[in-house]
């Protein structure tokens, strides 16, 4: 059995009096892919932000697991890559210029170079065109390259297939399958279950802030 990488125990998250998450308990194993399903407002993005250490639970606990012992996720942020639904890129800069900027925010010797990160997602690092002129598929791959810079163990991806054409979505699936094969843990949200089926080890279905089903994917 793969070791547990991160764990949520009875996690609830309130916005005022509104419960975005309600008593979520689940473990995420190393080297597995978890696909979060549910309607808008089900709590998927909030769950990702809690896992990323960007939101603290209102109740319950979220923690990283090191040699079987819990640690606060906030202490392990360098091991987590978070790709939000918004691209978080500077439209006037090229892909390489964007990654040069973000690489400067990391102080770890293991950080990928912008060239290596762009090549990892199949983009030409010498492309001078500004990101604002990229197709949606290219923007998403640039966002993924940004996430890969610190070589995280846990990848949290919010709607990575959003607004992509079929060819771009297929390319993203191939990229994510390669990352999973390299023993990264992937947690992603999507409204397109069929796209994620080649990747998934587990489907997590959410409704109104609750985790209502955990389904193991058929053996590939």
Give the topology, please:
Elements: E1 4-15, E2 18-29, E3 33-37, H1 44-51, E4 59-66, E5 69-72, E6 80-83, H2 95-103, H3 114-120, H4 136-148, E7 154-158, H5 166-181, E8 185-189, H6 193-196, E9 202-207, E10 210-216
Parallel strand pairs: 3-8, 3-9, 6-7, 7-8
Antiparallel strand pairs: 1-2, 1-4, 4-5, 9-10
Helix pairs in contact: 2-3, 3-4
Order of helices and strands: EEEHEEEHHHEHEHEE
Spatial strand order of the main sheet: 6-7-8-3-9-10
Compute the number of strand runs: 10
SS strand fraction: 25-35%
Structural class: alpha/beta
Number of domains: 1
pLDDT < 50 runs, ≥5 residues:
none
Major sheet, described briefly?
6 strands, mixed
What value does the average pLDDT take?
Answer: 91
CATH class designation: Alpha Beta
General form: globular
């Amino acid at each position: 059995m793969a070791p547990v990488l991160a764990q949520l125990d009875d996690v609830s998250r309130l916005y005022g009096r509104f419960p975005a998450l309600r008593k979520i308990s689940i473990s995420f194993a190393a080297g597995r892919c978890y696909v979060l399903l549910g309607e808008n407002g089900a709590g998927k993005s909030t769950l990702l932000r809690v896992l990323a250490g960007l939101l603290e639970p209102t109740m319950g606990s979220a923690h990283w697991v090191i040699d079987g012992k819990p640690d606060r996720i906030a202490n392990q942020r360098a091991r987590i890559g978070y790709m939000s639904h918004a691209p978080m890129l500077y439209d006037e800069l090229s892909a390489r210029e964007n990654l040069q900027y973000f690489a400067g925010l990391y102080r770890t010797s293991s950080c990928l170079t912008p060239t290596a990160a762009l090549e990892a997602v199949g983009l030409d690092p010498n492309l001078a065109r500004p990101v604002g002129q990229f197709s949606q598929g290219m923007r998403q791959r640039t966002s993924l390259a940004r996430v890969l810079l610190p070589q995280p163990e846990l990848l949290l991806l919010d709607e990575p297939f959003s607004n992509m054409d079929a060819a771009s979505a297929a390319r993203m699936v191939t990229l994510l399958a390669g990352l999973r094969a390299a023993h990264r843990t992937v947690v992603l949200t999507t409204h397109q279950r069929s796209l994620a089926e080649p990747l998934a080890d587990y489907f997590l279905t959410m409704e109104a802030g609750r985790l209502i089903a955990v389904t193991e994917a058929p053996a590939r």
